[in-house]
Design a protein that fits this description.
Elements (H helix, E strand, L loop, with lengths): L1 E6 L2 E7 L2 H24 L2 H4 L8 H5 L6 H11 L9 H15 L5 E5 L2 E6 L3 E4 L11 E5 L2 E10 L14 E6 L2 H14 L6 H4 L11 E6 L2 E6 L3 E4 L2
């Protein structure tokens, strides 16, 4: 079953085999948003900076009070020198799927505005929307079953309202961490400034060993990097 869930800026599709897991995912998203909002009230720069966020001395001194969602976002985005909010959608999706997994789910997925965390006991096709590109909605990644949570996150300079300094129609990254995949997708999308730049854009993320692979679509150019699942045509 699949259900749409919206709270403030979070717009997510949640999928699982049983309703109890979907309800767990909703509670996780609400809890992590509360933790994040509580932190931001005292540290407003966290939510507006587009550069690497450094914890100040007083924050390090009370590190046990820093929410785990904040820690993950800072750690993920620091790999690329970008602001921590670049990983918020992936982080919320990741926590929600982890909550479903810990409760016993073998199939769980949260698609938070194109940033996906999933756990699957079956083969899945994950399609890629790429705006007006001729590849849009015509290619997908074929994912096999896995007992581990995975992240598949996409950034775009032509689709949606998220901040991107590039013009990629889709910059998609796979990683065992959806938080890291979200941050990397932002960095990769930022690096795509023209169709000709696609080949070198992967340099922006290739130094991070925890990434599995990536795909970029920019107009009529499609390029890949790393170890991607099989790419299949959907039409």
């Amino acid at each position: 079953m699949r259900e749409w869930f919206q709270v403030k800026e979070t717009f997510a599709w949640i999928a699982a085999d049983e309703r109890q897991y979907i309800e767990l995912a909703k509670r996780s998203i609400l809890q992590q948003r509360r933790e994040l909002e509580r932190f931001v009230r005292w540290h407003p720069y966290f939510v507006v900076t587009l550069e690497r966020y450094e914890l100040e001395e007083d924050e390090r001194g009370v590190s046990e009070e820093i929410p785990e969602v904040v820690r993950r976002m800072i750690e993920a985005t620091s790999n690329f020198g970008i602001g921590p909010m670049a990983a918020v959608a992936g982080a919320l999706a990741e926590f929600a799927v982890e909550a479903m997994r810990d409760a016993g789910a073998s199939y769980a997925m949260v698609d938070n505005g194109g940033d996906i965390a999933l756990l699957t006991d079956r083969e899945l096709l994950v399609g890629i929307h790429a705006g007006q590109s001729p590849f849009s909605n015509k290619v997908a990644l074929r994912l096999g079953p896995s007992s581990s949570v995975r992240g598949i996150c996409t950034s775009s300079g032509t689709v949606g309202h998220s901040i991107s300094f590039g013009i990629a129609d889709a910059a998609t990254v796979l990683s065992p961490s959806a938080t890291l995949a979200d941050a990397a997708a932002t960095a990769l999308g930022n690096a795509v400034t023209s169709p000709e730049s696609v080949a070198t854009a992967f340099d922006a993320i290739s130094h991070v060993s925890e990434l599995e692979g990536a795909l970029v679509i920019c107009k009529d150019v499609l390029a890949t990097w790393g170890r991607l699942p099989e790419i299949v045509r959907t039409t």
